Amino acid sequence: MSSPDASQHSADPHTAEQILAMDAYLERTVVQPDEHFARIRQAADEADMPAIEVSSAQGKLLHLLARISGARRVLEVGTLAGFSTLWLARGVGEQGTVTTCEFEPRHAEVARRNLDAAGVGDRVEILLGPAEDSLTSLRQQQVEPFDLIFLDADKASMDRYLELSLELSRPGTVIVGDNVVRGGSVLTDQDDPDSAGIRRFLSALGEDPRTEATAIQTVGAKPWDGFSLAVVNQVPGR
Ligand code: DHB
Ligand code: MG
């Protein structure tokens, strides 16, 4: 699963080993995930799910962003086994909720078990099906705006998820997008639909007057990638 693997890194093997060792060091000194996160990884592994969840350091960043922004209502697109979901559920606290969208019924089942076992099941709702449908349905139900939104599903639809997310936001909503670098292919690969989706997403983040954004490249337990961070603006006349 996501046992860190130096061969995934594009850095030379020696540097890759050092990067992994450094992330392991940061994980045990400052991130300090409890045993529930290791259990989720193991459950995902046993269910043969792809080992593509966020690293512990990245998950803790999501948790901190939820706390710093005082988020009570979090929306996640892409549940997988519930690893980032647990970080976010811890971040919103007992009074908060996480609504998370998952396409694969089998993944949603594993996540449900994992989140219940971690003691946050009652604050997490898993919406099964294509995220575009789930987000559209939330919009039609006129749910309260979300405080923080984490986009981490299929990359080809990232721009569409952003558009729908903005309709589920208020000024001040934090929007985080995962995998905006993809080992550099976002810049170099013109044929990959996922990279094209990320380019449309980043262009929209940069151009849309409703968002103020940055994007940060990352290396660590996961290979070279990056995330975007945006806040929703108060736009006059809206
Ligand atoms: C992939 C997806 C992710 O969300 C991620 O963080 C890394 C890789 C992928 O689909 O390959
Ligand atoms: Mg991701």
- Side by side, the strands of the main sheet go 3-2-1-4-5-7-6
**What is the CATH first-level class name?**
Alpha Beta
CATH topology: Rossmann fold
Report how far apart the termini are. Answer: 45 Å
Roughly what is the average pLDDT, rounded to an integer? Answer: 96
Hetero groups? 3,4-dihydroxybenzoic acid, magnesium ion
How much of the sequence is in beta strands?
Answer: 15-25%
Q: Which architecture name does CATH use?
A: 3-Layer(aba) Sandwich
Number of helices: 9
E-strand count: 7
Assign an overall shape: globular
Structural domains: how many:
1
Ranges with pLDDT <50 over ≥5 residues?
A: none
Which structural class is indicated by helix and strand composition? alpha/beta
The value of Rg in angstroms is: 17 Å
Biggest sheet, in brief? 7 strands, mixed
CATH superfamily: Vaccinia Virus protein VP39
The share of residues in helices is 40-55%
What does this structure look like?
With 238 residues, the protein is of the alpha/beta class. The protein has one domain: Vaccinia Virus protein VP39 (Rossmann fold), CATH 3.40.50.150. The protein has helices at residues 13-31, 35-46, 56-68, 83-92, 105-117, 131-140, 158-167, 185-188, 193-207, and strands at residues 73-77, 97-102, 124-128, 148-151, 174-178, 211-218, 225-232. The chain has a seven-stranded mixed β-sheet, sandwiched between helices. Strand 2 (97-102), helix 5 (105-117) and strand 3 form a beta-alpha-beta unit. Bound molecules: 3,4-dihydroxybenzoic acid (DHB) and magnesium ion. Magnesium ion (MG) is lined by residues 52, 152, 178-179.
